[in-house]
């Protein structure tokens, strides 16, 4: 269940089961094993013991059947001609639980951004607070409630039972239109003041592409074929197969179908999400409580025409978002930011070419003409 300080429209009404998270890294040199997550790690025992091959095969078959019910191969964006949807608010969705110091820093950066390009729909801030029993949690709720967002409307959604970060992602957003836009932020992020201007323009330019699953604000370092980290340099936005969970903005059309599918699964732990050529498959087998592998499988499912990439822009001097990797379930080192948030625009942030390069699991250029 949830309770809210404002009327809840699409925040979701059911209290999800508990879950912990072991996320794949999304570009943090200081923490290659994953980022620190704020959510309670009460149910690690749920993931103990791998399912047998026959069980996994059966789960995959059931999973495929449920996928077929909500997915069609028509890549037409039904009501989207590339526009961000001027009449709809751009949603900034914050996921938090008890790291009030992180939340305060993130909200300060949210409020410090430039929203002059928001359009008549404006900007809507949603702070989703997972349940916990601690003084830190109570302080987090207090900060969320008292925060004055100067650029638009604000809603605080407090869960009445512990969800965990995996379910927090799956329940974060239920788009009602292909033209809705949102970005999902975990609380140990810090935004560049330039983030919104770039993302809004990127959605205007590329929102109608059939190969776009979403976009991310981070500089993605992960080479998905082997888990190595490399700083890929490009003088223009590009498409890469791996999502970036630091400031991820999924395409409403695909995210709506994705969450409909994943919320209908009977047992998330037993679903076979193997994607050939990815190290993230191995990571998920050992810790099947992240959200990203579900999205990767959805976007690049074998024997499907569907290939949905994530859009990135890589400045040479900083990023549109920084990740602090705060101490938590999956990080124990003192927090330090992985990228400095940009304060001044650069040529790469103003460049939106019609043709985009596609990169595969190995971070090598793909030939999309075949």
From TrEMBL:
In terms of InterPro entries, this protein maps to: Nucleotide-diphossugar_trans
Region: Disordered, residue numbers: 1-83
Start-end of Basic and acidic residues biased regions: 54-65
- Compositional bias per record (Low complexity), positions renumbered to this chain: 13-31
Q: Which domain of life is it from?
A: Eukaryota
Composition-biased stretches, type Acidic residues, lie in 32-43, 66-77
Q: Which SUPFAM superfamilies match?
A: Nucleotide-diphospho-sugar transferases
| Name the UniProt record assigns to this protein | Glycosyl transferase 64 domain-containing protein
- What taxonomic ancestry is recorded? Eukaryota, Sar, Stramenopiles, Ochrophyta, Bacillariophyta
């Amino acid at each position: 269940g949830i309770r809210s300080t404002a009327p809840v429209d699409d925040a979701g009404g059911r209290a999800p089961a508990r879950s912990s998270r072991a996320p794949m890294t999304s570009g943090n040199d200081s923490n290659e094993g994953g980022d620190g997550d704020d959510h309670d790690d009460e149910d690690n025992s749920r993931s103990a013991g791998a399912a047998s091959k026959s069980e996994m095969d059966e789960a995959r078959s059931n999973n495929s059947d449920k996928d077929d019910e909500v997915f069609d191969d028509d890549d037409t964006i039904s009501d989207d001609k590339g526009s961000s949807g001027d009449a709809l608010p751009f949603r900034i969705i914050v996921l938090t639980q008890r790291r009030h110091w992180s939340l305060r820093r993130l909200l300060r950066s949210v409020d410090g951004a430039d929203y002059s390009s928001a359009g008549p729909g404006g900007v809507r801030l949603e702070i989703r607070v997972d349940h916990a029993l601690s003084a830190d949690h109570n302080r987090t709720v207090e900060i969320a409630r008292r925060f004055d967002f100067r650029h638009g409307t604000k809603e605080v959604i407090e869960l009445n039972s512990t969800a965990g970060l995996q379910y927090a992602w799956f329940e974060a957003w239920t788009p009602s239109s292909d033209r809705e836009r949102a970005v999902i932020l975990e609380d140990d992020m810090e935004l560049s003041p330039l983030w919104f201007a770039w993302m809004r323009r990127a959605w205007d330019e590329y929102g109608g592409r059939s190969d776009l699953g979403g976009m991310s604000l981070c500089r993605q370092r992960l080479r998905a074929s082997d888990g190595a980290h490399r700083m890929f340099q490009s003088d223009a936005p590009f498409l890469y197969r791996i999502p970036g969970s630091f400031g991820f903005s999924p395409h409403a059309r695909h995210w709506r179908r994705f969450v409909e599918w994943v919320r209908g699964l009977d047992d998330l732990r037993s679903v076979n999400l193997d994607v050939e050529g990815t190290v993230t498959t191995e990571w998920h087998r050992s810790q099947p409580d992240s959200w990203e592998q579900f999205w990767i499988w959805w976007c690049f499912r074998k024997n499907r025409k569907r290939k949905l990439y994530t859009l990135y822009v890589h400045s040479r001097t900083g990023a549109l978002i920084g990740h602090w990797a705060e101490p938590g379930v999956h990080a124990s080192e003192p927090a330090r930011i992985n990228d400095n948030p940009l304060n001044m625009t650069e040529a790469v942030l103003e460049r939106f070419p019609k043709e985009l390069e596609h990169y595969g699991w190995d971070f090598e250029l793909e030939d999309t003409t075949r």
